[in-house]
Design a protein that fits this description.
Elements (H helix, E strand, L loop, with lengths): L2 H12 L35 H16 L4 H8 L6 H6 L10 H8 L2 H13 L2 H9 L3 H12 L8 E2 H11 L3 H17 L8 E2 L12 H7 L15 H14 L9 E5 L16 H5 L4 E2 L7 H4 L4 E3 L8 E4 L1 H6 L6 H14 L17 H13 L13 H14 L9 H13 L16
Antiparallel strand pairs: 1-2, 3-4, 3-6, 5-6
The structure holds calcium ion.
């Protein structure tokens, strides 16, 4: 490709609407591109890995083309090396899954509830946030608790190095390069120096673990000192989190979820299915587990039934606010933990129904279960061992077809039954292809 074609394509890439970082924010726009001046190729010192150097030099040139000053790029990108531990952390599914109930019991702990209840009354910013953003103080506190143990554990990875490693590795290159670009914008704007940009291995920064792009678009100055300091100012971090939830669509006054009691001989296959209002669910015998009536704000809102540990465990009606929390972190476990913590911080009691005993499942068993559901024609998703929404939906259909309770819960008993069916299907056909473990 000649240089002119390269330049046109690169500039077209700048106009990509998915590159929404910093759009419209005053004072932090990148310098205007200068297409008249050919981008100089500026080899950076070798990292010791030729493929990393090739990626980094390509990224460097792209940033020059976009108008970042070479003095900034030389200072921040020179000497970068990949961080091996990040590649290990990013490798995907664990060998043994952590049971949902164990995650909730560990995270919604008595010690954490005690701190949250104390914070509920001791942080003067909270009522201000609540009235300004319409987001409950206990929700913001719960995110703070989950993300950094109330500001104490923010991560000490160099965020630029983390995103450089993830971009070089390539699985999420475009995303990681966008975040790296956001880091450069934060530094060049003067809002935070490089040494402030510390966070998790996945590049989430500060007391409520914002990605750099989210910092640019959503962080606010809660303590009104003129800076958006999500690392050193809890007021800034908490107000920024409330702003995030508001922008994500938090509906003031509505619950995030409510524990419910299901009648005997309930059709569990409706779990994670239709959105009905609590009034409609009541016609199927679904009631609030605490026996209280539905609030006016909740009664007419569509809610989904969720059974995290199947028919034996607690059941929840999930309101739209649950899915707002999922925009912070898309794991159902995370959203449930945040919501339950918030309820407890606000003075509510523990769940009515106890979590059932659970055991972790081996990756090989989760993969085999997905393969069995696929072979039986119920599952079309990835064979990745994650067993999320698609896996549970397929399992409910399979359970219903085979006469089991269709609750979508992958218990050890279901794994045995699925593997037996998969094995029984082999004699007439070729042996199943060997399962390929995820590549690091
Ligand atoms: Ca501030």
């Amino acid at each position: 490709m000649d240089r002119r074609a390269f330049l046109v394509l690169t500039l077209a890439g700048c106009a990509d609407p998915s590159n929404r970082v910093a759009v419209g924010l005053p004072g932090i726009a990148p310098p205007a591109p200068t297409p008249q001046q050919p981008a100089p190729v500026q080899p950076l010192p070798a990292s010791g890995d030729a493929t990393f150097d090739a990626w980094l030099n390509g990224f460097y040139q792209k940033m020059v083309t976009e108008g970042f000053p070479s003095t900034l790029l030389d200072r921040e990108l020179a000497g970068l090396t990949p961080e091996a531990s990040i590649l290990v952390s990013d490798k995907g599914q664990p060998e043994l899954s952590k049971p949902f109930s164990k995650y909730i019991i560990d995270t919604v702990s008595d010690a954490r509830i005690a701190i949250g209840r104390q914070m509920h009354v001791s942080q003067p910013i909270l009522p201000v946030i609540e009235s300004q953003y319409g987001v409950p103080r206990d929700l913001v506190l719960a995110v703070w608790a989950m993300e950094s143990a109330f500001g104490k554990v923010q991560g000490d990875h160099d965020v630029l190095r983390a995103f450089a490693t993830l971009a070089w590795q390539g699985r999420r290159r475009a995303w990681a390069e966008d975040e790296l670009r956001a880091c450069l914008r934060i530094i060049s704007s003067g809002e935070a120096p490089r040494e402030r940009l510390k966070g998790s291995w996945a590049g989430a920064m500060g007391q409520t673990q914002f990605l750099p792009s989210v910092y640019l678009s959503t962080a606010v100055d809660g303590d009104h000192d003129g800076k958006r300091d999500i690392w050193g100012s809890s007021d800034d971090a908490l107000a920024s989190t409330a702003n995030y939830m508001l922008k994500a669509g938090w509906a003031p006054g509505q619950s995030w979820a409510r524990e419910v009691t299901l009648p005997a001989s309930f059709d569990y296959s409706v779990a994670e299915g239709p959105k009905n209002t609590p009034i409609e669910w009541a016609t199927m015998g679904v009631t609030r587990a605490d026996g209280l009536p539905w609030s006016g704000a909740d009664a007419a809102v569509g809610a989904t039934l969720f059974l995290p540990t199947g028919a034996r465990g607690p059941a929840f009606l999930l309101f739209p606010n649950h899915f707002v929390i999922r925009k912070y972190n898309n794991a159902a476990t995370y959203a449930l933990a945040v919501g339950l913590l918030a309820d407890r911080f606000g003075g509510e009691g523990p769940l009515i129904k106890a979590w059932p005993p659970e055991t972790g499942l081996l990756l090989a068993d989760r993969l085999a279960s997905q393969r069995a559901l696929q072979a039986a024609g119920f599952y079309k998703g990835d064979i990745d061992g994650a067993f999320g929404t698609g896996g549970r939906a397929a399992l409910r259909l399979w359970q219903k077809a085979r006469g089991y309770t269709p609750d979508g819960y992958l218990s050890p008993e279901m794994v045995v039954a699925l593997k037996a069916e998969l094995a029984a299907g082999i004699p007439d056909g070729p042996a199943p292809a060997p399962v390929t473990p995820p590549q690091p």
